[in-house]
Amino acid sequence: MIGHHRHDIAERLTVDRGTNHVEHHVGHARGGDALFKALFFTLGFAVVEAVAGVWSGSLALLSDAGHMLTDSTALGLAALAAWLARKPPSSRHTYGLVRLEILTALVNSLIMFALIGFIVFEAVRRLQSPSPVMGGAVMVVAAIGLCVNLIVAWMLRRGGGDLNTRAALLHVIGDLLGSVAALVAGATIWLTGYTPIDPILSLVVSGLILVSAWRLLLESLHVLMEAVPAHISLEAVAADMAAIAGVRRVHDLHIWTLSSGQIALSAHVELDSFDDWDAILAASRDRLARSHGIRHVTLQAELKK
Q1: How many CB atoms neighbour CB 177 within 10 A?
Q2: Per CATH, which fold does 2-224 belong to?
Q3: pLDDT tens digit string along 143-152?
Q4: DSSP string, 227-257
Q5: pLDDT, tens digit, 9 for 90 and up, residues 183-212
Q6: CATH number of the domain at 234-303, out of 3.40.50.450, 3.30.70.1350, 3.20.20.140, 3.60.15.10?
């Protein structure tokens, strides 16, 4: 009888995992198109802004181009996650390739730190020895960049409300501030000829990049270490599961992040009787999904010792 129950449990969990994959695929598909379009606009203008920064001599434009590159990274990761989520798990990669998103995020965060170091070094050098800057050209390019960021923000706003899209939108809103900083620098130089404003504001933009890169690094390491997601309390989850009728206690509880928006859980559930398992399994999955957003669930039923 126990063997029959365990076979039934494993079979049901296999079906549930397939259902979860389909649900996750649909969620990513809604925002995927908007993310790829936003990536095209942002990365394309980052290249234009970098070239314009070198041509005009503006470090503010170069630093804003760097910030747009961080946004492109965020958008690229989100788009990559949306694309990978459409790939079904295989016998070799049973969760699919979702962890590639996290590894890419880690590498890109380290690249951003190198970029920040270059901008800060160049800003200090220019404060000590000011260089001529074409204020009018900086204003025009920064104004175009501001428009591009507004368009990208609008596309993401309409692209869906999933976690990846919302995170990407926050990056783009931060880049709006970088475009404003470059615009202010260009206007100040054009009106007053005060060129130190360019490296000063580039340091401000570097601060924005630093915040984004630091958060990306910490989140990547947090996921790779298979830590409990920051917004989830292990104790609260255990208490909720133990409160279900027929459950004696929950032990060996593990909660970790597979990729953005995908949280997995495994646990041993001690029961009064296997006869109650069908109702307990359904109640556990429902409570974990509704109260904690956990849908990748593996539970092992055990009789009270």
Answers
A1: 15
A2: Alpha-lytic protease prodomain-like (1.20.1510)
A3: 988 898 888 8
A4: PPPTT--HHHHHHHHHTSTTEEEEEEEEEEE
A5: 898 899 889 988 888 888 888 878 877 887
A6: 3.30.70.1350
